[in-house]
Amino acid sequence: MAQTKTQFGYRRHPDQDRTGANLAEHAIVVVGAGPVGLSLAIDLAQRGQSVVLLDDADRIGEGSRAICFSKRSLEFWDRLGIGQRMVDKGVVWSVGKIFHGEQQLYQFNLLPEQGHKRPAFINLQQFYAEAYLVDRVGELPSIDLRWRNKVTGLEPRNDQVLLTIETPDGPYQLSARFVIACDGARSSLRQMVGAEFAGQVFEDQFLIADVKMTAAFPTERWFWFDPPFHAGRSALLHKQPDEIWRIDLQLSPDADPAIEKLPENVRPRIARMLGHDKFDFEWISLYKFQCRRMDRFVHDRVIFAGDAAHQVSPFGARGANSGLEDAENIAWKLDRVLRGTSPEALLESYHIERSAAADENIRESTRSTDFMAPVTAQEARLRKAVLSLAKETEFGKRMVNGGRLSVPSVYDTLLSTADSDAWRGGPRPGASMLDAPVVAANGEPMFLTDAFIKSGTRFTLLEFSNGAAAEVPEGVGAIRIGGDGGLTDAAGIAAARYDAEPGSAYLLRPDGYVAARFRKPSRSAVDAALSRASGLN
Amino acid sequence: MALSTSSNFAKPDDAFRAVVEAHRRLSEAQSADLDAALVLVLANHIGDLDVLNEAIALAKRRMLDASQQQQQQQQ
């Protein structure tokens, strides 16, 4: 962990001297400075909001933990000004291979086409991601990050929430218009609002080891069913920066965690896997997991995001990535509500969109887990049939489930305007914008995701010009492809990905999702779609 | 497309026989393995989730009928 700061000091804040009727009032308090809380605070600050960010610890947690960050997360982090730093440090990958015993069953490429700014995934230890986010927070004076500030009480008032916060100097109180709880799977705020957190518990245990070694494995995700070095179970291998390799081994449900975790017991397993024992342990952890979510993500003025709101099994990289999607979803909505440009009802769309996404993530990761650890004899038999059929059939390969990796959800949402024109492709309303290579008017090559940031990461009309520029409502950004001064889509990739003809236009939301699309946008149709996406009708 | 339950084979006995023959000389465990693979192969060939669900529902009614009969016998 050289060169990155991971230990931070507690500092007394003037708010702590205020009592009674003189309590500090803040618009937004974010609780939890993990990847989700930090990213959310940065997004809000960049939109012009002041944020108080509280964390009960004063250091970044150890161990690699979440390591796979998706293309979507990288695009979000690009908007926050830290995508490049993450990619520069991270290990880029897009190919996964699945083995059964000694034999490779199949391989998949998560991003088989060119012309995207960001790769399918990078692997990066969570502590690096958090350290870079903390550095970015330090550049933004409107974020007030308070370490060793533990929320111990939460009391809803009419239009405020009263928080009681424990510090090394004792407790203090402050009030907030909105509290965003990003305080992780064991969220204490979730308990304070009295919310249930029910779901499925998986009995199988998994062992994670971060191993330091020099190895010639390619930078791919390798997954084994019944590997020769770990008979009857599954294993997963990922490369991380600094010559660290992440190894996940499935253990039997009755394995004793305390014994399994001992390095002298882990070492022979890994040595069998690698064929040598020239490695050192950086971190060993044992986990069981649950798939569950809160019934409601919005509890009046307390809004839940990330693991605090939903938990999934780790197979599919759907934990941290879905938490980051929560953050980008709530940030712009909260900004508009606080500015008074959208009604508070817009926040309900966060619950609708992200709880449906959580359901999808839970469904996908539960299916993967059930495939890896069949519950009944017949389930095991069906899995055996799939693994065996995969050796000689295409459909069998596609049925093998060694984790379905995180992709952005498509929202079925009231904020979308249904298509009234005919489309043969392109992202439909509720889907995330697609990247494509374009050339700026000054001849610089760039990407559509860059253009979206340049236009202000706000409601933006992406227009494929037919000569005349479409009329854009006030406050809405514009990306023009073609025409005088517009971007050039030299290879026609953008037009193909958006099924665009001259005159076609997409209305993008501030989180880069498609709100509406038009073959021939009229000002009134764009206004109506904008109004709908803003929660105004 | 709906699940077809009309008779589709010119010689249904041949089809029934083909499945029976496939199980000859197999142990119970092997038979169960064969059925699991066969179901997945045929499901993929159908390639229609609605039809598959209808087929599952039709097959599952046997379980229901069997348990009802058992209950009646016990009464």
Map the helices and strands.
The complex is a heterodimer of chains A (537) and B (75).
Chain A: E1 24-31, H1 35-46, E2 51-54, E3 68-70, H2 71-79, H3 83-89, E4 91-93, E5 95-100, E6 103-109, E7 121-123, H4 126-138, E8 143-146, E9 150-156, E10 161-166, E11 172-181, H5 188-192, E12 198-201, E13 205-212, E14 221-225, E15 234-240, E16 244-251, H6 257-260, H7 263-274, E17 280-287, E18 290-293, E19 298-299, E20 302-304, E21 310-311, H8 320-339, H9 346-372, H10 377-389, H11 394-399, E22 437-439, E23 445-447, H12 448-454, E24 460-464, E25 477-481, H13 493-497, E26 505-508, E27 514-518, H14 523-533
Chain B: H1 12-23, H2 28-46, H3 49-74
Number of strands of chain B: 0
Helix content of chain A: 25-40%
Quaternary structure type: heterodimer
> Low-confidence parts of chain A lasting 5 or more residues at pLDDT below 50?
none
Major sheet characteristics of chain B: none
**How many β-strands of chain A, per DSSP?**
27
What is the rounded distance between the termini of chain B?
41 Å
* Residue share in β-strands of chain B: under 5%
Number of helices of chain A: 14
**Radius of gyration over C-alpha positions of chain A, nearest whole angstrom:** 24 Å
- Average pLDDT for all residues of chain A: 94
Class per helix and strand makeup of chain B = mainly alpha
Largest sheet of chain A: 8 strands, mixed
The total count of helices of chain B amounts to: 3
Query: Of all protein chain pairs, which has the greatest interface, and how many residues does each chain bring to it?
Result: A-B, 12 and 8 residues
Strand fraction band of chain A?
25-35%
Rg value of chain B: 15 Å
Which descriptor suits the 3D outline of chain B?
A: globular
Q: Ends of chain A: how far apart?
A: 50 Å
**pLDDT averaged over residues of chain B:** 92
> Can you give the helix content of chain B as a percent range?
over 70%
